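#struct-pred
JK: can someone run the complex with nicotinamide-adenine-dinucleotide? inputs below
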Amino acid sequence: MAILKTISSPIGRELSCKSWETEALMRLLMNSLDPRVAENNQELIVYGGTGKAARNKEMLEVIIKELKQLEPDWTLMIQSGKPVASFRTFPFFPRVISSSSMVVPKWATWKEFSRLEDKGLTMYGQATAASWAYIGVQGVLQATFETMSEVAKRYFNGTLKGKIVLTSGLGGMGSAQPLSVTMNGGVAIVVEIDEKKIGRRLLNNYCDIMVHTVDEALELANEAALHERPMAIALLGNAADVYNDLITRGVTPDVVTDQTAAHDLLHGYIPSGVTLDQADFLRNKKPEKYVELASKTIISHVKAMSAFQERGAVVFDYGNNIRGQASKAGYQEAFAFPGFISEYLRPLYCEGRGPCRWIALSGDPGDIYKIDEVILSKFNSDERICRWIRYVQDKIYFYGLPARTCWLDYKEREQIGEIINHMVASGELAAPVAITRDHSEGSTMAAPNRETEWMMDGSDAVADWPILNGLLNTCAGATMVSIQHGGGVGIGNSIHSGMTAVADGSIEANEKLKRLLKIDPGLNIIRHADAGYPTAKKMIEKYGINKPL
Ligand code: NAD
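RT: done, structure tokens with the ligand placed:
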């Protein structure tokens, strides 16, 4: 298909759709499939194992065509990456609503899901892939940075200087890890089995060097740690093998985690002793054998992580359900170490902080820098945000549409929409801006092995909150609302929702943004207050959030 070879979002002010709302969604969809942004755009795979933006190439073309002709009071419906109908609604309501990867709970297994996917009836949408909000590694960078900062604060006097972090996976999300470690002053050893992925991360400076042996990795890491020099080392190899090798050698890194795409044993995780070519062959010819081998490897992988913990390392699951997979494969003690959300990020959710992101539809990086400057001046009392903006300005360069992600609290999110919309209206920015977010927030994802693990009131598996979030965002004027299943931790393990709005400078956009941007942080606070978290209860009073009970 010609479109995929050259796909990249249009930029500038000229519209090819009938409104900025539909234009924004089309640009975001195309941006997520830009070969510089997506992990494998020929397969429409954006990130996270097999997370896709459209069902197939034909459907991608139809979606783009439909968006181009959609009237400003119509709503297009996407069913797992396939446009199924449009209906006349109201200008204030979303232009696109989408539901992805949903299956009836009893049938929510990878086996049944793959059968439906193979028949062309559904698509795995991950989280920001099917909601067209993926912006490359930067999207998850701040969450990863905040996690590493929290680890540093809790265990190492606020810095990772002189500390070695062992992890794996340099995919769409995982490659945020090395940079987050070096940004906190530490040394990262990241094990990755695919040399091409390492090459990509070396190109954009997320990693400093590639090595082929554990000896080389250790020598470099120890030397850098000794001199408190930040360094990101990519080690070509199989994570389970390397972790077990280190256990045998008696080496204990300071921090250990993992971000292979372990949520999907068949497509996201390479078993020990299997090359990438052999993996492709086995997947196609003997999928059950493949899963059996992957399950065996994952048990030894998780056992090694637990052994590191017993030796005193700080160990946590990084949102890929590796503990869940090991437990399913028969390893009873798989949950010996915690998940990163319950351990490090939940306190931020309780405050209403969450991952907001904005994308310059102009294609002009200057728009992002201008918004940065306003944030640095208006939110100057929030040291966390200012430190983040200064870091990324220094370290990140843009590919695809220029974008910024930033964890903002209730008040800041309320303000940011109006600030950006005003900057568009005044002509300060070259074109409108899309405002969206990750699905990984307190009220927007129900995932008992991740976002809702070990909730205070035991409500881990209650999945009403992301549905309420999606419905409320629909009522409040979002441009796109999506409801999804299986993101992050895989089929059967999560329900979540996405939201995108557009600051086009109009009065209507301002009204929408004022309402919308309170919903995510507000529900975040309410969900955690409802579960009994004292900080969230205080935030309800502090921000005067309306709560009937
Ligand atoms: P990806 O599919 O883009 O990358 C996974 C990487 O792991 C690939 O590069 C692959 O080659 C490598 N890999 C697989 N098996 C390996 C092995 N045994 N040894 C070494 N390398 C191996 O996935 P991604 O987008 O980077 O996401 C990684 C995981 O994190 C997924 O499970 C995803 O669902 C989850 N996730 C985490 C967060 C978060 O905030 N932490 C957010 C979203 C998703």
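RT: quick notes.
The first strand starts at residue 45 and ends at 47.
The radius of gyration is 22 Å.
JK: thanks, will look after standup
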